[in-house]
Amino acid sequence: KKDQFLNPHLDNSHDKDRNSWRVLNLLYYVTPNWQDNNGGHLELWPNGLKSSQTTIHSKFNRLVIMATHQSSWH
């Protein structure tokens, strides 16, 4: 829905019962003709929330592979 967003966060990547960790997230953009002003961009905060972010724009057929760990703010 337009104008909605998630605040920067870390994913819950630990499964305590299985003692396993997720190490990668894959985001695949599947909507053709997506308009940039619709938003839906991915923001990466590689140096934490007190620094500037890197924005990856939503684009049809784009695949983003992102490490998931204790400092992978997005």
TrEMBL record:
<feature type="domain" description="Prolyl 4-hydroxylase alpha subunit Fe(2+) 2OG dioxygenase">
    <location>
        <begin position="3"/>
        <end position="74"/>
    </location>
</feature>
<dbReference type="InterPro" id="IPR044862">
    <property type="entry name" value="Pro_4_hyd_alph_FE2OG_OXY"/>
</dbReference>
<dbReference type="Pfam" id="PF13640">
    <property type="entry name" value="2OG-FeII_Oxy_3"/>
</dbReference>
<protein>
    <submittedName>
        <fullName>2OG-Fe(II) oxygenase</fullName>
    </submittedName>
</protein>
